[in-house]
């Protein structure tokens, strides 16, 4: 995970040092509750949380900026406080507001995600970073109990472009500093929002602050190889392509990982509304993505 870093020397230290050496430079990175971790369905503790609630999640054009952090592309809503996307429910201890989202990807499609799911690494992972609504900004929330929550979305390779990603991908070649971009963040979430892992972890880039409440969905968002290539063309400050910007897996150290087993599937995504009508059409694995996107968009 990336967080806003404004001091150039900090950036230099982070990217000059391999993640293996982070703990020497940033002691928190050697903590006992670090992220990412290997998620396993079979060993996760089943739990039933109330449904997640998404508020103000339909922000679109002109309300977000994309920033090249040198390590990823980071998108931040630029909305008045009352209109910022918020989440609550789903076992979260309180209400959180979105401060940014960003991506981790691999040089090849057999890697890129930070978390692994049942032993598999996916080509890209998106992190939506939230802070408690009582905090002014991200820095104010650092190191506070229950202050930071991150939603993680895994991307799965698809034969077809995912048109929902295009507004972001279109600005990637020009993301030198900050660019306005159209985005509809709710459409970027996976289809089934009732099935997810929950555990306590950390930020995945220095200073690796703990604690962070992690929610990792186990349904996927499709992305094509062509679209992944456009992420890989993004250059960092050293004019070298940003690739493999994921941290190695961290030890669980006895932490409990929960897997939400909702009583009924809870999904506010427009696709799910459509999907409900076409049972038993099988959407897992994206059979029919090409066919269905015409309906969905
Ligand atoms: Zn991240």
UniProtKB/TrEMBL annotation:
One of its GO terms (molecular function) is carbonate dehydratase activity. Residues 7-261 form the Alpha-carbonic anhydrase domain. CDD domains: alpha_CA (cd00326). Pfam families: Carb_anhydrase. Its EC number is 4.2.1.1. The keyword Transcription regulation does not apply. InterPro entries: CA_dom, CA_dom_sf, Carbonic_anhydrase_a-class, Carbonic_anhydrase_a-class_CS. PROSITE patterns: ALPHA_CA_1, ALPHA_CA_2. SMART domains: Carb_anhydrase. Its cofactor is Zn(2+). It is an enzyme of class 4 (lyase). It catalyses: hydrogencarbonate + H(+) = CO2 + H2O. Keywords: Lyase, Metal-binding, Zinc. PANTHER family: CARBONIC ANHYDRASE (PTHR18952:SF265). Reversible hydration of carbon dioxide. Belongs to the alpha-carbonic anhydrase family. This is Carbonic anhydrase. It comes from Armadillidium nasatum. The lineage of its organism: Eukaryota, Metazoa, Ecdysozoa, Arthropoda, Crustacea.
């Amino acid at each position: 995970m990336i967080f806003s870093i404004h001091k150039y020397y900090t950036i230099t230290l982070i990217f000059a040092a391999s993640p293996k050496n982070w703990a020497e430079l940033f002691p928190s990175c050697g903590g006992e509750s670090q992220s990412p971790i290997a998620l396993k369905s079979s060993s996760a503790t089943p739990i039933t949380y109330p449904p997640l609630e998404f508020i103000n999640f339909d922000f679109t054009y002109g309300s977000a900026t994309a920033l090249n952090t040198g390590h990823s592309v980071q998108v931040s809503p630029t909305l008045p406080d009352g209109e910022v996307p918020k989440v609550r429910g789903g076992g979260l201890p309180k209400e959180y507001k979105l401060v940014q989202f960003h991506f981790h990807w691999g040089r090849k499609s057999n890697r890129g995600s930070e978390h692994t799911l049942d032993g598999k690494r996916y080509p890209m992972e998106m992190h939506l970073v939230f802070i408690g609504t009582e905090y002014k900004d991200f820095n104010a929330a650092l190191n506070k109990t229950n202050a930071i929550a991150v939603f993680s979305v895994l991307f799965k390779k698809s034969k077809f472009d995912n048109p929902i990603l295009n507004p972001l991908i279109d600005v990637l070649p020009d993301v030198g500093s900050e660019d306005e971009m159209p985005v509809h963040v709710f459409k970027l979430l996976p289809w089934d929002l009732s099935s997810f892992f929950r555990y306590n972890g950390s930020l995945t880039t220095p200073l690796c602050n703990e604690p962070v409440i992690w929610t990792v969905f186990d349904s996927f968002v499709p992305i094509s190889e062509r679209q992944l290539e456009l992420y890989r063309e993004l250059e960092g400050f050293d004019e070298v392509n940003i690739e493999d910007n994921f941290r190695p897996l961290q030890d669980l150290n006895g932490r409990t990982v929960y897997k939400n087993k909702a009583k009924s599937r809870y999904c506010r995504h427009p696709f799910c509304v459509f999907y409900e009508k076409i049972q038993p059409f099988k959407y897992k694995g994206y059979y029919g993505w090409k066919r269905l996107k015409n309906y969905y968009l």
